[in-house]
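Record type: monomer structure entry
Structure origin: computed from sequence
Chain ID: A
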Amino acid sequence: MKKTIKDYDLSGKKVIIRCDFNVPIENGIIKDETRIKASLKTIRYARKMNAKVILLSHLGRIKTEEDKQKYTLKPVAQSLSKILRKKVTFIDQTRGEKLENAIDKMKDKDVILIENTRFEDLDNKKESNNDKQLGKYWASLGDLFINDAFGTIHRSHASNLGIASNLPNGIGFLVENEIKKLTKLINKPRKPYTIILGGSKVSDKIGVISNLINKSDYMLICGGMAFTFLKSAGFNIGSSICEKEKLNYCKELLDKYENKIILPIDIITAKEVNENAQTNERFLGEIDEDDIGLDIGPKTLEVFKQYIVDSKTIFLNGPAGYFELKPFQNGTKQLLDIITHTKAYTVLGGGDTARAAATFDVQNKISHISTGGGASLAFLEETTLPALDIINEK
């Protein structure tokens, strides 16, 4: 068991909390505050315990000086101030005298948000490459480190692994909850256990497939990755996406688990990918060479439903189609509808899967929606999670 924020006396301590405020911002306006709200329990607890709260987060990818204007965390500080009803002091730098002086003047319950940690990536990617000196510097600003950014738990960054290597540490409520919810998918899940994998790439899901296929009863394959499986099974997929280097892998899986892996039987195709595309419903064997598969068809949904309705545990990672465009939304929308009408313990991976749930307004009908796409997959692979492994044990 990892130590949590509750295992420490926070009173009067400078507590550095690594959050995940990687939110969508357009023209300085936050479009979705979900990730900000996800860490509120940890922040509020630290303030209640009379801590001096120092917040760190990344936002976007910083490759040029111009990116700094686009990816400043200032709007997040403003949002947090409103939500907490407490002024959150924003420091527009990641290190330096201004930051140090502000922290020295902090009183109990004060909150400071430091500028985007990835601003440090302009200097030889010091944040993303876990520069040891940067990690030590950030650690020197506080007395205790709490990691509440599940979305980067599988990354070795200066703002998580680096700080944790230099301070007493623990996890926040968000990370603790993610671990609890996702562990149910690994350790004796209630049966029947159905895994639904979508998205574009087989390569992104290999670890999860390998680790969970023997723990699950059925694995339903959809999204762009389905076409690599279908081609490996000998079907013509037209101009659909395909990872040729994974054809042998898919063929071996289908041969070994022919009664467990379920593939689409009909596809929604188009000649081009846009909002006004003319679509066709094609059964396997009817796909033309210039057809692009962009969603699952109604017959596939009927087949998938047979496996889903009686499930006691369901994990969905990746959309069933190109749901961002209206002509290709139905598969993902109907799949979520089927899932939310079961009595199963349901978990959605983060990223595109979480966005789909928000698009079709089913967030409140799901048992758990992970805040980390790649992180949730890495956790379910039971692979190394550097920013979690470093956390002190109880």
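Annotation 1: The CA atoms of residues 23 and 335 lie 26 Å apart.
Annotation 2: The chain has 16 helices and 17 strands.
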